[in-house]
Amino acid sequence: MRLRKTIFFLFVTLAVSPMTARSDEAGARNPVIWADVPDVSVIRAGDRYYMSSTTMHMNPGLPIMRSPDLVNWTLVRYAYDTLVHNDSMNLVNGEDAYGAGSWASSLRYHEGRYYVSTFSSTSGRTHVYWTDDIEDGEWQSSSFEPMLHDHSLFFEDGRVYMVWGAGEIRMVELEPDFSGIRAGTEPRVIIADASAPIDGEIMLKAEGSQLYRVDGRYYLFNIAWPRGGMRTVLVHRADSLDGPWEGRIALQDAGIAQGGLVDTPDGRWYAMLFGDRGAVGRIPYLVPVTWEDGWPVLGEDGQVPDTLDIAVANTNVAGIVTSDEFDGPGLPLAWQWNHNPLPAYWSLDARPGFLRLTTDRVDNGFLDTRNTLTQRTYGPVSDATVSLDVSGMRDGDVAGLGLLQRHYGYVAVRQEDGQRFMVMVNAGGDAPLEQARVPLDGDVVHFAARADFRDLADTTSFEFSTDGTTWTSIGEPLMMRYTLPHFMGYRFALFNAATREAGGYVDFDHYRVEPPPAWDAPPPLP
C-alpha cells in the first residue's frame, strides 16, 4: 500500500487542470462531476444507472449514486454505517485510518439482485453487501479474509468469483454466501503480467480490475502507469475465463483511467473513469466507447472528449453536496463523519434547529478530533458558510470550519481564560501555524471558506462575520496539496476540539453551499 500511495503522490504533483466543455449546448460536458468521486464502478438496471465509489476513512461509507443519464448523479445511500470498530477507525490509542478505510468497490446487478463489494487494509478483510432494492432495501453483508486488493465481483453459471491483483491478476471462486473462498478451491493466475501491453518500465503495475462479459467474450479492464508517463487504461480479452488472454492499451490521455464499461438501453457504450486533479481529488469522466474487431475503443481519436453526445445539462455536484439548516430528523446523505462517529456527542435534538457538537476528550489537534462532520469540496470554485453559537465552549476549546486534509486549514473560535478569539490556523507547511487572531464579543459568529480549483489554483481563503452580512478576511490563503496520508480530496469540515477539558459544546445553526450547475471552459488539455 505504501508504494502505491507514493506513486499516486508523484502523479498528483504533475496533474493538469480538469477538462471541461467548450461553449456547446448540444451535449453534456466532462468531467461529469468536478469533485472527489474516485474508483468508480457503474451498472445499468433497466433505464437507471448506479455508481459506487471510494470514501476511505469516512462514515457512513461506500456511497451509492443514481443517474438517469450517466451525467447527473444523486447520492441515494451508503452500503455501511461503520465498516469496522478498531483503534484506527475509532481514532484512539494514537491510531487512525487516514489513507485506508475501504478502497475500490465493485458494483454488480445479477438476476434482480444488487451487489457491491470492497476491501480494507483497516479491517484486513474483503466485504460484500447485497440487496434486492438498491435504493431502499435492507443490506445483507458478509466479510472474509484475506483482503483481495482492487477486486472485481463476477457471476458465471451459478457461481461467484473475484478477480484481483497488481501486475499478476488472479481469480478465485467464493462460497455462495460470500463467507470466504470456496472450500477445496485455490486462487489461480489468469494473467501473469497484465502490464505487458505497455512498453518500458512500469511504475504502477496493472490493478483496478473490472471484469465484464459482452457477447460471450470476457473483457478485463485495469490501469497501469509507465514511468515518466501517465495512468493508462488496459483491456484484456478472452473467450474463456481461463484464457488465453490478449491485451492492449485502451486509453492513454490526460491520466484519465480506472473504471469500466456500461451500456445504454439504446445500445451505446461508455466507460466511466476518473482523473487525478490536484487538491479537489479524483474526479469522474464519461468516455464514449465504440467496438472494432471485438475490442472496446475508448474516446474519440484516442482522447477523452470535452463534450458528450448526451443532450442534458450538467448539474455537477448538486446531487452529492447540500446545504443544511439542521432542522431535519437526521443528517442529509451528503454528510460523512471523519472516522467512526460517537453518537452520544453529537445531536440534532439537544437544541432543535442546530447541530450540537460536544467534546468527548482532550485532543492534540484538528486531525485527532472525533465527530468532525465533512462534505466534499468541488470545482471550479466552492464556498461554504456556517453560523455557530459558541456560548457552551470551555477554556481550551477550538471550534469552527476547516478544510480537511493532511495540510489543513481552518477558521475557528478559540476560548482561553474566559476570552474568545477568532483564529485562522494554516497547516499548509510542515506544522500548523496560527496566522491571525481577532477578539470576539458575543456568542454568535459566522465563518466562510472559499476554495478555488480553477487551473489548479488549489487555494482557500477564510473570512468571518459577526452579522452574517459583512465579511472580513482572516489569515493567509491556504495552499492546498493533495498529499498523503489522506488519499482523498479536501473536504469542508465542522469541528469542535478540546485541548484542556472535555464537555464543552457548540451549536451550528446552518451550513450553506451553492453548487454551481455548470462551469466556464478553461483551455483544453494538452
Automatic annotation (TrEMBL):
InterPro entries: ConA-like_dom_sf (IPR013320), GH43_C2 (IPR041542), Glyco_hydro_43 (IPR006710), Glyco_hydro_beta-prop_sf (IPR023296), Glycosyl_Hydrlase_43 (IPR051795). Keywords: Glycosidase, Hydrolase, Signal. The keyword Signal applies. CDD domains: GH43_FsAxh1-like (cd09001). One of its GO terms (molecular function) is hydrolase activity, hydrolyzing O-glycosyl compounds. This is Glycosyl hydrolase 43 family protein. It holds the Pfam family Glyco_hydro_43. The record marks 150 as: Important for catalytic activity, responsible for pKa modulation of the active site Glu and correct orientation of both the proton donor and substrate. One of its GO terms (biological process) is carbohydrate metabolic process. Residues 323-514 form the Beta-xylosidase C-terminal Concanavalin A-like domain. It comes from the Bacteria. Residues 1-21 form the signal peptide. It comes from Marinihelvus fidelis. The active site is at residues 39, 207. Belongs to the glycosyl hydrolase 43 family.
